[in-house]
Amino acid sequence: MDSKRRGPIGIELVKRGILTQADIDKALEYQRRNPNKKIIEIISILNLCDQYILLQVLGEILNEKSIMLTYGDVKIDVKKYISLDMAKKYLAIPFEINGDKIKVCFADTTNTAATEAIRLVLLNKGLIMEKYITFERNIRAILNSLEGTDSENIDTGEDATTLVDSIIKAAMRKRASDIHIEPLEDSIRVRYRIDGELVKATEIKKEKQPQIIGRLKAISNMFQEKQDSQDGRIIMYPDYNIRVSSQRNIYGEKFVLRLLKKNMNIRGLAELGFPQNDEQIRKNLNKRNSITIIAAPTGEGKTTTLYSIIDYLNNPSINITTIEDPVEIRIPGLNQIEISEKLRFSDSLRTVLRQDPDIVLVGEIRDKETAEIAMQAGQTGHYVLSTIHTIDSIEVITRLRKMGVSDYDISSTLATSISQRLVRRICPKCATKREFTNQEKELIQNLLRKYNIKINLDDKFTYTANGCKECNNTGYYDRIGVFEILTLTDEIKELITKGASSLEIRKLAIEQGFVPLTVDAINKVINGETTLDEINKKLVIY
Length: 542
Ligand SMILES: [Zn+2]
What we know:
39% of the residues lie in helices and 23% in strands. The protein is α/β, with parallel strands linked by helices. Helix 15 (368-379) links the parallel strand 14 and strand 15. The longest helix is centred in the first third of the chain and has 14 residues, at 160-173. Zinc ion binds next to loops.
């Protein structure tokens, strides 16, 4: 957006009741520190309102069609229509074709140099451009995925059996958790999810589609003729369980293969990124008559942390029982129970408590009933570990309250509440060391100042993620947890009993040395484990 547009968009958003003037001031303040960023991007980055509404209003103001473009919306081979250099230069992605009409998404439709250049290139190909607008970061994310092309490890020979096998084996070598095999307009795209991000692996000629689909269905034990969604399993790789699902789209059946490694190594707490020197925290793990809850959104590594804690506590003299949905890793010496539609968490937990366990792991607290039994178990001599789906460690208290657990039960039983996010580790093979820029220093200091923490950044370094063969050109390799751990001190318990708000609890916790997620994340940047860009994706610090 050019500067002329800044006013109207802000005013329009306030007028429509989507943002307050205070929000706009916050965005403008941010823009003073980051003069290159457009106001709309800043509103989006700071998450000041619903992203979809923001985009819709932007479209209305500019009189353009808007779309929250993601990689999955790109139905065509971008490079066939415009070069990647051009896409990068003009921040534009052609994404769908219909007869002689081609949809192109721009980060800035008011940049007529960009829209005209692309319109002409497409017109030369006999195509009429239909403009769309989205956020710049959506375009950049897609450009990154398009660039990650690396097909050297995949055998693109004639035979579908060899081809499918090499796609799966290459995915295993590259530590992928999922394989996406997607028919496009005139090719089949193969992508891997590695460290949480989709990376393009290869593209296969469209002619091979029937054989590849036939082979995938055969080894997954699916019906060959059926074209509707199916679920299957591949059992021919001894070290992996592979769950397969198919879904028909307009270009054919798309397959997603989820790779679950058997006998996965359990990582030590330190390896996960858990604070190492905090005695109090370790003491609270395995405190009888208490409960520890891990809180995070799905896919942020809650289960891995639970297993690591269990592994840390496991010894032959104690009885550990887990109730899980499903059992993801089998650990020797544990009683692991899998819940089903008939057997719920609360029912299993009741039975388990009669089996004299020392430690009980309850996969997830989803309802009042499970919460109450877990609390009771924690009050009657057991140590209970569980998870709750919420954003941070202090919100655990709010969530339990909302489920109907009394302030008394929370304060007398909850000992530790942990929250976490996974961020990618910088690739040690290709990272280059550099000093923090002044802007980065300012950003970090501003953040730390909120928590009364001072760090001298002048002798500290950070790394640039470059990308190499080892890391599939992403610049990152593997992931690390960012943690915040709330230990419920007597003073915090007293606040809870008095019905204090999470804001008041947070304030006191920080006074008592609680390290919030953002601060742990910043520490991990300063220690050279990850980058500001990476943590910003999960924790919005810019
Ligand atoms: Zn690398």
